[in-house]
Design brief:
With 117 residues, this protein is α/β, with parallel strands linked by helices. The protein has helices at 19-31, 48-57, 74-87, 103-114; strands at 2-9, 36-41, 60-67, 93-95. The longest helix has 14 residues, at 74-87.
Length: 117
């Protein structure tokens, strides 16, 4: 069975706002061809439950939720675990730490900011 990855971000009414997340999902699909990848947003959908249903339809046997947030605020600490519990998924689900708290990501962001312009 495939692993499902749900990238969760805040969401925005502006359709251009989601482009970096769409690029990230596409890059992950190339790097992890055995995984099924979906995007979910806390606001302005698709919701976590909709993304999970799409992954289950693709044969996901487990789901890894990746918060695409820089830090663990209220959405990551409270809202996200509640949404996962409310979805009552039939497969194992794990929630990663926010992407912005992972060392390699911090180093990559710092390197980009420090790069000569």
């Amino acid at each position: 069975m495939r692993e499902g990855l749900i990238l969760v971000a805040h969401g925005s009414r502006d359709p251009e706002w989601s482009r970096p997340f769409e690029r990230l999902a596409a890059a992950l699909e190339k790097k992890l061809p055995a995984a099924a990848v979906a995007l979910a947003y806390l606001e302005y959908g698709p919701s976590l439950e909709e993304a999970a249903a799409a992954l289950l339809a693709k044969g996901a046997g487990s789901i890894r939720v990746v918060p695409v947030f820089l830090g663990a605020g209220g959405h990551v600490k409270g809202d996200l675990p509640r949404l996962v519990a409310a979805a009552r998924l039939s497969v194992p689900v794990s929630i990663d730490p926010p992407i912005g708290e992972q060392g390699r990501v911090i180093d990559a962001i710092a390197g980009e900011i420090a790069a000569p312009r």
